């Protein structure tokens, strides 16, 4: 069975799980069990499909569904397959975890199962959609389903966090839509991503499209200054949903930047300043993300708020690393060339770069934190609530890990 057949089957199973949760909504426990178990099966199918695509089983589908002007087009290649596989792992874990965890939401288990399954399915569609119309439909569905999961407790904090997320998500949606419709206009009015790949846009048009897409997907991923929703929405979502949002949804921001810069605009050539822009925003967000997290801990704020700011740091470190991929590319190099370079050694090196950059950015964030404390007049209060002197030491294991990562990078680049 090819990867696309498995993938479409996983989408169908997710829809069955969502429908079962709604039909059994009066029987709370039955709805929860059906939604979670069926969701786990869908995750297994999509994981196998993603792995097959990563290993070279690139497949697509092109058919008419509802609207003749916008063909229902899906593409499962190495890049989308990698993201499908990763999100499938999180979806499986979240489904199994939800069997017990959704008991925390009595009377809302059917609703949770419905939105959980549709949220996973919409993320899968965003990753594989190969048409502007269906990409935007799936993207909006992803935002709406995750919003209803954030506000599921229906208290003041969840509604406030959900509203902030809703607004920023739709700001990003408008920017992405503007980017895609600009490409559509200069690609003869076609909604098909395949026509974007074949069109050589002028440098000015390509740059406008990339910048719009960068900030649009950056809003979904929480890059500073569009990060405000992360520390507000993440604490309010159910834990397994929060894991899917942090490990899956915000990484779709990275996917979107890659897709537009290295795939849809591949015929136009990548301009050097795109990579520099990504690097600058990544570096700034990396440092400030950790600084805000330290400040939250120092003022006695909750753990989830700190975690959300560390997510901003993690995303920013990744896009900073991506700038290294974007800078040297030319118009002849496509996403396929990047996929072919993803050997085991490259992945290990990427992890090492992540570890070192995260360590350096954390140290810089500490300096920013100290500056904020000294200039805010709250030194005494923060020192009282900060960790004791015995807990300020750097872990030897952490230092050894950084040294090993640096050693591997030096060995790979100079001696290997």
Report on the architecture of this protein.
With 416 residues, the protein is mainly alpha-helical. The protein is 75% helix and 2% strand. The chain is built from 16 helices and two strands. Strands 1-2 form a two-stranded antiparallel sheet. β1 and β2 form a beta hairpin. α5 packs antiparallel against α10 and α12 packs across α14. The protein starts with a helix and ends with a helix.
What labels describe this entry?
globular; 2% strand; 416 residues
Which regions are unreliable across 5 or more consecutive residues at pLDDT < 50? 297-313, 326-344, 385-395
Rough outline: globular
Class derived from helix and strand content: mainly alpha
Physical arrangement of strands within the biggest beta sheet:
1-2
What string, H for helix and E for strand, traces the elements in order? HHEEHHHHHHHHHHHHHH
Q: Characterize the main sheet.
A: 2 strands, antiparallel
Question: What value does the Rg take, in angstroms?
Answer: 22 Å
Mean pLDDT: 75
List the helices and strands and how they pair.
Layout: H1 3-23, H2 28-54, E1 59-63, E2 72-76, H3 78-101, H4 109-128, H5 132-150, H6 156-186, H7 193-198, H8 203-221, H9 230-233, H10 239-264, H11 272-298, H12 303-326, H13 335-340, H14 344-374, H15 379-385, H16 396-415
Antiparallel strand pairs: 1-2
Helix pairs in contact: 1-2, 1-4, 2-3, 2-4, 3-4, 3-10, 4-5, 4-10, 5-6, 5-10, 6-8, 8-10, 10-12, 11-12, 11-14, 12-14, 14-16
């Amino acid at each position: 069975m090819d990867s696309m057949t498995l993938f479409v089957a996983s989408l169908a199973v997710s829809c069955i799980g969502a429908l079962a949760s709604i039909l059994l909504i009066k029987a709370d426990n039955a709805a929860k069990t059906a939604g979670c178990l069926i969701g786990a099966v869908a995750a297994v199918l999509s994981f196998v499909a993603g792995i097959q695509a990563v290993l070279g089983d690139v497949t697509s589908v092109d058919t008419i569904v509802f609207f003749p002007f916008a063909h229902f087009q899906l593409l499962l290649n190495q890049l989308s397959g990698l993201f499908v596989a990763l999100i499938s792992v999180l979806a499986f874990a979240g489904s199994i975890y939800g069997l017990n965890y959704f008991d925390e939401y009595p009377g809302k288990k059917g609703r949770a199962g419905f939105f959980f399954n549709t949220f996973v399915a919409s993320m899968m569609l965003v990753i594989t959609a190969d048409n502007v119309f269906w990409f935007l439909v799936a993207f909006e569905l992803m935002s709406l389903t995750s919003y209803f999961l954030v506000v599921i407790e229906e208290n003041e904090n969840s509604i406030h966090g959900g509203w902030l997320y809703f607004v920023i998500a739709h700001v990003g949606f408008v920017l992405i839509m503007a980017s895609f419709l600009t490409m559509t206009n200069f690609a003869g009015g076609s909604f098909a991503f395949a026509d974007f790949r074949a069109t050589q846009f002028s440098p000015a048009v390509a740059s406008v499209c990339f910048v719009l897409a960068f900030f649009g997907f950056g809003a979904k991923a929480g890059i500073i200054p569009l990060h405000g929703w992360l520390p507000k929405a993440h604490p309010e979502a159910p834990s397994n949903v929060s894991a899917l949002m942090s490990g899956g949804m915000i990484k779709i921001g990275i996917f979107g930047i890659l897709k537009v810069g290295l795939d849809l605009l591949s015929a136009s050539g990548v301009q050097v300043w795109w990579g520099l822009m990504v690097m600058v925003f990544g570096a700034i967000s990396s440092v400030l993300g950790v600084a805000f997290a330290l400040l939250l801990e120092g003022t006695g704020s909750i753990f989830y708020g700190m975690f959300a700011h560390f997510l901003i740091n993690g995303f920013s470190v990744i896009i900073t690393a991506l700038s290294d991929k974007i800078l040297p590319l030319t118009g002849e190099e496509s996403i396929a060339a990047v996929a072919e370079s993803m050997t085991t050694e490259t992945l290990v090196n990427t992890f090492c770069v992540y570890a070192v950059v995260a360590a350096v950015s954390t140290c810089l964030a500490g300096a920013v934190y100290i500056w904020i404390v000294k200039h805010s007049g709250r030194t005494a209060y923060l020192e009282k609530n900060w960790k004791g002197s015995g807990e300020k030491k750097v872990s030897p294991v952490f230092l050894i890990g950084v040294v090993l990562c640096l050693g591997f990078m030096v060995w790979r680049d100079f001696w290997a």
